[in-house]
Amino acid sequence: MKLLRASDHKRMPWKNGGGETVEIAVSPDGAGLADFDWRVSMATVATDGPFSVFPGIDRTLSILDGEGMALFIEGREPERLTQASEPLPFAADAPTSATLIDGTITDLNVMTRRGRFTHSVRRVSVDGATKLSPRGGVSLIVCHRGHAEVARLSLSALDCLLLEAGGQEVDVSGKAELFQIDIQANRRR
After folding, report:
1. Is 143 within 8 Å of 157 (Cβ atoms)?
2. For residues 136 and 56, is the Cβ–Cβ distance under 8 A?
3. For the chain, which terminus, N or C, has the lower number of CB atoms within 10 Å?
4. Per its UniProt entry, which superkingdom is the organism in (predicted)?
């Protein structure tokens, strides 16, 4: 288990230079944008425009703050993504652009290298005590809002708990909005 505090997240420019991203976690440690196996980050989007293209990468976006955006992903119907929407998975190498609905947004971005890793993202509301069931591999619990105790560790807004070799239930208590991210290596590489 590793606690990743919001104050320690790494800030870096977008691949296309159009903004800034806050990297929560990456594997392997220290990997760059061209050689990561998986990556979890947040980005503030202040203007309409194209997304960075990541060949061979699958991504899932969720809206953390703001009214949301309309996403135009090549080969798909336009998608409206808001804080109430389910996390949206799509290929990061499909040309994609976004139009903001009403001002700046912050998104949560999960990316995995296709063919080597898969991932899933789900929102979890906690009000009291519950259990989370990581799927094995690597799991990350990101605290979006509020405060939660996860596996006896305290998480505040934008803190993250990284669980390696997950698969066992984790005790959670408090009042918070969380994201559970499960990343699994494909058996064949």
Report:
1. yes
2. no
3. C
4. Bacteria
- Mapping DSSP to helix (H, G, I), strand (E, B) and coil, where does residue 6 land? helix
What domains appear along the chain, each with residue ranges and CATH number? 8-113 (2.60.120.10), 117-185 (2.60.120.10)
pLDDT mean by block of 10 residues, the chain; 189 residues:
91 66 92 92 91 94 97 96 96 96 95 96 96 88 96 94 82 96 83
- What pLDDT does 156 receive? 96
**Could you write out the DSSP letters of every residue in 105-165?**
EEEEEEEEETTTEEEEEEEEEEEEEEEE---SSEEEEEEEEEEEEETTEEE-TT-EEEEES
What pLDDT score does 188 carry? 62
CA dihedral 92, 96, 97, 102 (to 10 degrees): -60
Q: CA-CA distance, 5 to 154, in Å (whole number)?
A: 10
Q: Given CA atoms 71, 72, 76, 78 in this order, what sign does their dihedral have?
A: positive
